[in-house]
Design brief:
The protein is mainly alpha-helical and 159 residues long. The chain is built from six helices and no strands.
């Protein structure tokens, strides 16, 4: 229900991540950082759909992809159009080379890390950002990110 509300709210906006620390994020950097974090979440989730047999991870990965498409759209970008940060690109390469057995655990750990970064980024932008449309995206993203972290915490025991 919360996911549906989030998606509907993003669509209703009509809007044609790196921040692990709590320092303010300049407004010109929020969009790019959010899209880069989203690209990582989406690409690793697309990979997970080809590598896991765990239905809980499949469900999470599908939801993550859908939500990243919506966030990118709300920020006026094509989903996955932002380049990966070097550390995200390295993790994606490691995931691609990881056998299916240990893949699930590594995927979940990467998603936890990425979601924590997105949580910090969105919280920081709400405190210091100057673009009202982007602040709305950040505000609506926060409960989804928090819910995902709770789901990922329960998936942590996978593998």
């Amino acid at each position: 229900m919360l996911r549906r509300s989030f998606l509907l709210a993003l669509g209703g906006l009509g809007l044609s991540t790196y921040a692990a620390q709590s320092k303010p994020v300049p407004q010109r950097d929020f969009r790019t950082a959010d899209l880069m974090g989203g690209a990582f979440a989406m690409q690793t989730s697309q990979l997970a759909l080809t590598r896991t047999g765990n239905p809980d991870i499949v469900n999470f990965a599908n939801a993550e992809i859908t939500e990243q498409v919506q966030v990118a759209s709300a920020l006026g970008a094509a989903p996955g159009s932002a380049p990966l940060r070097p550390d995200h690109a390295a993790l994606l390469q490691r995931l691609q080379a990881t056998p299916s057995g240990p893949f699930d655990r590594m995927y979940v750990q990467g998603q936890i890390r990425g979601h924590r970064e997105l949580l910090a980024l969105n919280n920081s932008y709400l405190r210091s950002g100057g673009n009202p449309s982007e602040q709305q995206v950040a505000q609506m993203s926060l409960p989804i990110i928090q819910r995902h972290l709770a789901i990922l915490s329960s998936l942590r025991e996978v593998g």
